[in-house]
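User: Predict the complex with glycine.
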Amino acid sequence: MVDTSISKAAPAQVRIDLGERSYSIVIGTGLLNDAATWQGLPRAAQAVIVTNDRVAPLYGERVVRALSGYYPTVHTVVLPDGEQHKTWQSLNRIFDALLQQGCDRKTMLFALGGGVVGDMTGFAAACYMRGVPFVQVPTTLLAQVDSSVGGKTAINHPLGKNMIGAFYQPLKVVCDLDVLKSLPGRELSAGLAEVIKYGPIHDLAFLDWLEKHMEELRRCEPTALAYAVQRSCEIKAEVVGQDERESGLRAILNFGHTFGHAIEAGLGYGEWLHGEAVGCGMVMAATLSHRMGILSDSGVERLRALIQRAGLPVVGPRLAEDNPSRYLELMRVDKKAEAGEIRFVLVDDAGQAHVRSAPDALVAEVINACCD
Ligand code: NAD
Ligand code: GLY
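Assistant: Here is the predicted structure with glycine placed in the model:
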């Protein structure tokens, strides 16, 4: 039974259980301004907020003010906005700032932004002086339901997305739903792709709920949004709690990502949003699941319809004259690939995910069927 009783006043807490690296994801409204949000974090001489030039003018000052009550010095590092800046150069700007400000190994980092800022700040925290503590303050829906949770941190390489990184858990994740009000509709839709993925891989009741509440989510209706963020985080916490470093189960969270990463790399990072590529990638992965005989035609259509209602593309882009070969070439760089064999996350009608390889010829058929 789906419980939608989250109170607007009381933040919800989802615990991610990882032994001594366990932490809470706090979900609610007014959290950035609430002193209780920041209480209990380790004290340090310096706190550094890492953000970007789009989010800084919206929320930077608010977080500086809140943290100034706890840390004697609060610095802000403002990176250029965009997936195309998820690079060594941006990472180095964080290290430059930390060193120039004389930050020690107790310095607390705060990632204020979407998944790009979160992934880069987490990686910087993992590396600086061999590891400093950090807190995720995700400001996109995508980051609140996925990237801020679970400790995957990375930058892109021209030859592959998120190829250079580390597993490094934050001390806390603060999901203030109020910040989503300034998110453009296209970005909200991109976040909905990562919300939708939790249904077919783990929880068909959640898929039913999403079908009923999609329009409310697109209108940013607070109760619906709160439930979607909470349920997504619960599912992610459950999966990551069992397989932190993706030796098996965690790979199911990559449903749609094998095709999606090929779309992102093939078009050039930033052309399609990550969530758009994942949304379309889920249609392609569902189609492959059907051709592999584990998902019914109606299962594919159900997912395609929901992804379309979320405002996401459902037809893949043409990446080259020989489109299937280009997709296959790009997908061989995927982190799930083993000995050059691509491994796909497939789903079945019972709401279970399976990580499997598939014959190239079949994958090529799917690419031809699903692309422009
Ligand atoms: P993003 O970080 O680029 O943010 C999207 C856009 O929204 C940016 O322009 C950003 O500046 C802007 N923005 C952020 N918050 C805003 C707000 N409240 N109001 C207005 N604008 C705002 O993209 P994203 O979709 O958040 O994250 C995508 C990234 O996350 C990708 O690099 C992807 O690889 C990564 N990711 C990582 C994981 C993980 O487990 N670590 C999981 C999924 C995705
Ligand atoms: N976004 C996939 C994962 O965290 O494993």
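The chain has a mean pLDDT of 95.
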